[in-house]
Every structure is written in C-alpha cells, then in structure tokens.
Write a sequence for this structure.
C-alpha cells in the first residue's frame, strides 16, 4: 500500500552505482530545503548521509550512477523491486556517464592501462544507463543534475504529478537569460543548439561554449550544427570528442560523433 | 581458540561506498581489509587521446565533492608541461574558488558526516531533532562555500569556468562584493564551530603518523607547494613518481601507495596542520590554540577540530582575497601546447592530490596518472583500524562495528576517487 493511503510519510531512498557522488550530493546541497524535505519524507536509505539504513520498500528511489559490474546489474533489479517509483538522477544513471567511453574502446585494454593485475578486476564491457537494465519512471539529466530540477522532481512526487522538466535546447534558456550568443557573436564552438536545457545556460553566461553535459535535447539537428562547427575550424576528431563526453551513448550524440568519425 | 569475524557492509557517511572485513584469532587481528566496492571507471585510460584542454572537466567527474581539487591539480600539471605559470590575481581567483570548496566540503564532513558520531546520531538530519541550531549553522556554512564556488565557477558541483591557463570569464569586483558579507557571517559560524567541536568527547587515542602534505613558502598550502614529509624530507612535485609508488598487492583491494619504500603514511587535515600550522591565518591560529590543539595533532578523532580550524582559515583568506581583488586584464594566460610531461599537486580537502600528464606535439594526452588522497591513506586507515580493534575485541559486534566506522570517517575518505580502487576478489591460492 502506498504512503498516501496510509497517511504515513513517504519513504525516500538514494542509491549509488558507478558515479562521482555529485548528483546525490545535490540533495545535501539543498541547504535551505533539506530539513523541510526530511519533514515531508522519511529519508529511509541514504548511505552517504546516514548510518541507519531502513529496510524497503521505498516510495521514491533516486538512483545515481551507471551499471558497470555484474553485481550492480543484479543490485539494480533489487532496487527496482523495492521501489514504487524509480527516478534516475544524472548523466551516469541516465546515459552511462563518462565511464561509458569504454563503449567506444576495448575495456580489457582500459583495465590493463590502469591496473597492473587486470585479472583482479570484474567489470562489464559497457557502462549502461539504468533504463537499459530495469524500467524507469523518470530520468533527470545533467552532469551534475540541477538542484532546482531535483526539487521539482521531489515536489512533483509529493503532489503525485509528473515533473515539469523542459525538453528544449539550451538556446531557449540562453535567450531567456539575455546572454549574447557565443556561437554567432564570438565564433565560440557551442553545443547549446543540440543540448537539453536545465543548467540555466551556464557556460555561455561564462563566455564559454556549452559542452553538452545535460545530453541531447528532444529534437536536434546536429548535421547543421556540425557544418557550423567545421566552418569555425573544428576538425573531425575535435567533433568526435565534443560529442563523446558525459552523454556519449545517447543516440543523437552517438550519431553525431559517428557522422564526424565517418568523415575523418 | 576464539575466532571472530566482523563484517561491516555498506559503510555509511563516507562519500562513495566501501566495506570492512576483519578477522581475529586469540585476540590478535589476523586479517583486515577495507574493501572498496566502487566500480573502476578507468579515468587514466579514457583521458588518452583527449585534448590538453579537457582534463579539468573530465577529472572533475572523479569526485562530486571535491571537483575543484581535480580541476586545480589537472590545470597545474598541464601548465607545467607547457612551461606556463598562472600568477597574480588569476592565481588569487583560483585560491578563492578552492577556499569555497574547502568550506563546502569541510562543512559537509563536520556537520553531516562526522559530528553525528560524537553526539550519537545516525545522521545529520537525525541530529537536527535535538541540535537544530548547530545543523542550521553547518548548512549556512556549507551554503557560503557553495556560493563562492558557484559565483566563480558557475555551479557548486563540476564548475564550468575553469580552464588551463585560468578562467573563461573573471568576475567583476561588484560580483564578489556581496560574497564578503556572507563570508564574514561564515567566519563567525566557523569560529563557533571550532568551539563546539572542541568540546566533544574524544577517545584517548594517538597514532605515530608519518605525515605528507604540500608546503608553500608563503601560504598554508592548498593550491600549490612542494610535498613535505614529517620526517623532514621534502621534494619538488616533479619528483613525485620517484617517491610515491603505487603497488597492486595480491589479495588486496586497492593500490597501496608507498612513500620512499614504506607504506602507511597519512595525508589530509592532520598532515597539513602538523606541517604547516604556523602558516594559518592569525585568527585560525588563535582558534586552534583556544581549542587546545598543540602544534601537532595525532588523535584522528580530533581531526574534526582541525577541519573546523581550516574552515576559519579558508573564510579568512577568502575575505582577504575579495577585499584586495582587482580584475585581471585577461581571464586566462595564453597557452601554447608543446610535447612534454607535466606534474601538478594540490591539497584536496581530504589530502594531497597528484596528477601527471604526458602531452604529445598535437596537444593530445598520451598518458595520465592520478594519485588521489584516499589511495594514499588506505594503508594508514587500515593500520588505525587494526590498532583500534585489538584492545576492543570483546565489545559487542554492533558497538565494535560502529567504532570502526568512526575510525574510517575520521579521515574523510572519498572512496569515489575510484581512479585507483579495485573491486575485491579474493585470491584463491
């Protein structure tokens, strides 16, 4: 029975897989809201913050990190079983993260570069998003996620509605913020036209081109953007690299990088 | 023969995930392993072939709690390969950004991770039920640090404004001025925090630590300096590979860093304080004196006091930089990539963080080596645990497990610096 029917506080769990901890830290970075959240929800499982993990089931599970080991592939199935709603937080959980660059390489070779005794390492050939392993109720993007969007996810859960998270590109946010377009005005390569909004158009506000850490927007035209980026002097290997960072395996970014690679 | 096995699964209130396995026979610890089950993420491998401009953004993703530390060590390593030095107001801005991270990371550790141990709570949030004013002060302090990082870096986690050579955009003096007000309040909070944590009940335990920390001629080293060891030796950062060697030991969970042939040295707050306390700001020095810290603190439980003193210092120095700030003429010094090897080290909140890169003539990374603080401290943490456990083997399992967890948290391990951690597999032989 879920929390609304029993009148008890809904139970929140925070889980970690292969990741940097930054997205779950975003919850602790809600300095002004943390104690209010704790009043509305029972923080039942959050190893980074508490040494008293409560047992499942949980009403809302926030999942950080990607699946990279056989054990984690099992563990995420357990998490799904004990969670009424499962929301992935961040680029690792939603797209495989920076560690998914192994997908474009040989993971055994990667292992031998870092470890003298690679035979001790148990790792999968790919770093997969949570949705490739179990059904997911909502995916929150970003490397890291945006605090306001995380609060929207939690608020929407408590109000039993779907989170309102725009799927449009960074360009829309950039105009709303009143930034000068770094791509057009300064000739700075920028992934804003193909990247999902959510950060608040941070990079252009700091005179820098967007580097795509929120992953692809709902609709993208990377062909047109690539032509523009080439005209600004970017080589094909440069283009491959800009699409292959924290969301490299997301289909629109994968296609864009492979298109550039094909031309290389 | 009595045989006791303590398993502590799901080590909590550390950043990242680990577990501890201890075996004892007849009152003697026969085996002790701090297990790290952070899956390897292969940063050193995936950095190869990337542009020299990318390590600050990519290595930030090793740790969401101390991304600035990774950015600073990475930038300085690459700059050293190119013979570039960032000085003057640009260096001051780097320091300011780094102080923001220290305030944020230390406040997180002190209030949400470490203090609950001394007051008997399972979490900072649970502690708030009886100590709401303290937790609110901690959150205010943490917020002041995050605001500093977000103003200079664009956001608190994985800042976007750091580049090799400096920044993409430098702040106007009027953007920094409002931070000063918040920092003055934060400094008061920090002084209160020192007094608060100094009054905790500390187990009477000291270890004969061998400390390693950066030293800087004019600063309590954070951004840069030369590695110094408490036995009196010191060496330039470029000699790091000759002194610190990482070994993959069979039947062990992690690469063990050895310093000049010996394992078990300590980096982090206790090490910095032991080697550099005379370079703390006068206010931080007097706070340390009032808190009863001598010139060296060897009790790892008291590291919470040292961290609080470091927060006073960070607030103080950040204010000094803001008050003397003049906007640099350019946001970054020009950088021309040349083939070469560069070394960089800085003091992450949890210890010395070293990066080395070999860059080819096209400006692409050919080789990367990252030595995070927790990889260096792992052997020493295991030694702490062994010494702590042996006299207490008769404690009830749950109590002993809690004591062990506390001993690990004393060193603020950032286990997600999995650049160098292994998943455990027991050697069958």
């Amino acid at each position: 029975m879920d929390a609304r029917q029993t009148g008890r506080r809904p139970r929140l769990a925070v889980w970690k897989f292969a990741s940097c901890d930054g997205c779950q830290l975003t919850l602790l970075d809600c300095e002004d809201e943390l104690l209010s959240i704790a009043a509305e929800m029972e923080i039942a499982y959050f190893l980074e913050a508490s040494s008293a993990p409560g047992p499942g089931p949980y009403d809302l599970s926030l999942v950080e990190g990607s699946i990279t080991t056989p054990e984690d592939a099992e563990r995420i199935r357990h998490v799904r079983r004990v969670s009424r709603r499962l929301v992935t937080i961040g680029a690792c959980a939603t797209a495989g993260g920076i560690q998914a660059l192994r997908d474009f390489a040989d993971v055994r070779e990667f292992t031998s570069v870092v470890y003298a005794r690679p035979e001790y390492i148990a790792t999968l050939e790919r770093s997969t998003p949570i949705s490739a392993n179990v059904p997911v109720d909502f995916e929150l993007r970003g490397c890291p996620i945006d605090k306001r969007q995380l609060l929207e996810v939690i608020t929407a859960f408590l109000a039993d509605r779907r989170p309102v998270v725009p799927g449009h590109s960074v360009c829309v946010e950039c105009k709303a913020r009143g930034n000068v377009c770094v791509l057009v005005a300064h000739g700075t390569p920028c992934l804003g036209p193909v990247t999902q909004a959510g950060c608040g158009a941070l990079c252009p506000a700091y005179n820098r081109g967007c580097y795509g850490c929120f992953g692809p927007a709902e609709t993208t035209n990377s062909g047109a953007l690539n032509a523009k980026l080439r005209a600004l002097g970017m080589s094909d290997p440069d283009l491959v690299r800009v699409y292959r960072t924290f969301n490299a395996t997301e289909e629109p970014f994968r296609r864009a990088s492979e298109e550039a690679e094909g031309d290389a | 023969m009595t045989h006791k096995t303590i398993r502590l699964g799901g080590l909590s209130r550390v950043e990242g995930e680990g577990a501890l396995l201890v075996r004892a026979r007849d009152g003697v610890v026969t085996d002790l392993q701090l297990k790290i089950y952070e899956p390897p993420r292969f940063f050193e491998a995936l950095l190869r072939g990337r542009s020299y401009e990318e390590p600050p953004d990519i290595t930030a993703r090793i740790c969401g709690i101390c991304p600035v530390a990774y950015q600073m060590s990475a930038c300085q390593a690459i700059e050293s390969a190119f013979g570039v030095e960032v000085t003057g107001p640009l260096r001051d801005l780097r320091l300011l950004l780094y102080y923001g991270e220290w305030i944020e990371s230390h406040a997180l550790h002190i209030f949400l991770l470490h203090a609950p141990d001394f007051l008997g709570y399972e979490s900072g949030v649970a502690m708030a039920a009886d100590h709401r004013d303290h937790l609110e002060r901690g959150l205010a302090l943490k917020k002041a640090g995050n605001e500093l990082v977000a103003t200079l870096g664009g956001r608190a986690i994985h800042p976007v404004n750091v580049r090799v050579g400096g920044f993409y955009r430098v702040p106007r003096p009027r953007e920094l001025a409002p931070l000063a007000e918040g920092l003055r309040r934060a400094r008061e909070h920090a002084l209160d925090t020192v007094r608060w944590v100094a009054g905790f009940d500390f187990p009477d335990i000291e270890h004969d630590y061998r400390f390693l920390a950066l030293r800087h001629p004019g600063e309590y080293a954070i951004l840069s300096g030369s590695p110094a060891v408490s036995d009196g030796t010191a060496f330039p950062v470029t000699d790091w590979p000759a002194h610190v060697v990482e070994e993959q030991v069979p039947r062990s969970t992690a690469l063990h860093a050895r310093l000049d042939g010996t394992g078990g040295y300590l980096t982090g707050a206790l090490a910095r304080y032991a080697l550099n306390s005379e370079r703390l700001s006068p206010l931080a020095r007097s706070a340390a004196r009032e808190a009863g810290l001598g010139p060296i603190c060897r009790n790892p439980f008291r590291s919470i006091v040292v961290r609080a003193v470091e927060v006073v210092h960070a607030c103080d120095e950040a204010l000094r930089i803001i008050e003397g700030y003049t906007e640099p003429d350019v946001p970054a010094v020009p950088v021309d990539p040349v083939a070469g090897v560069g070394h960089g080290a800085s003091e992450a909140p949890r210890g010395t963080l070293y990066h080395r890169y070999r860059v080819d003539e096209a400006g692409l990374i050919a080789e990367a080596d990252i030595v995070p603080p927790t990889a260096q401290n792992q052997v020493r943490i295991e030694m702490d645990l062994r010494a702590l456990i042996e006299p207490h083997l008769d404690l009830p399992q749950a109590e002993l497990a809690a004591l062990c967890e506390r001993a690990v948290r004393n060193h603020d391990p950032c286990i997600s610096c999995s650049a160098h951690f292994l998943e455990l597999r027991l050697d069958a032989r």
